[in-house]
Amino acid sequence: MFRTSIYSSFRVLNRSAPSAVLSSRLTAYRLLSTEARAKIANAVKADPVVLFMKGTPAEPQCGFSRAVVQILDLHGVPGEKLKTYNVLADEELRSGIKEFSEWPTVPQIYVNGEFVGGCDILIGMHQSGELETLLENNGVIPKAEPIEGTTTEQTLPETKDKPSA
Fold first, then answer.
1. Which helix (H) or strand (E) is 30 found in, with range?
2. Among the four residues 74, 78, 119, 121, which has the most C-beta atoms within 10 Å?
């Protein structure tokens, strides 16, 4: 009897949980107006690289935003190809960008309208070389040229065999 009542309690909880999660997701989705969603969608497509950050590139307001700016500088992303938005200046943008991307944190970076990720993902891509490839393939930075006088193959100079004594 006791086991049956516990089982039925869990079963009731189990049934109500998905609808509670779903309704909270739908409620959160409705917080971003259609107009705000359209503005963000247009913003991420308007420039080759778009960064939503806390502060500005000259004065980042968090270490993660500072790290992303430094990585983009390190890769030579030109200022005319980078548009930044300070989410601290606009509360609707601050919460809206998180909902738009379905990513819970800021900074967020987009390349040619595609969401790339946040600080941790960008650091990983930088370390693996993927970020440079992404930026080159999207025309943000020029493709790296090999340094003159170097090749990918190295050969040893030929030596003549000397007869052994």
1. helix 2-31
2. 119
| Distance from C-alpha of 136 to C-alpha of 94, rounded to nearest angstrom | 29
- 9-38 pLDDT, tens digit per residue, is 444 444 444 555 444 455 445 578 899 999
User: For 26, how many CA atoms within 13 A lie in the half-sphere containing its CB?
Assistant: 6
Tokens (6 digits) for 30: 């409705």
Q: What SS3 state is found at 83? A: strand
Q: Where are the domains of the chain?
A: 32-137
Global confidence as pTM: 0.71
Architecture, CATH, for domain 32-137: 3-Layer(aba) Sandwich (3.40)
> In the numeric block, which tokens belong to residue 50?
């778009």
- Token pair for 36: 């705000």
What tokens appear for 2 in the block?
């006791």
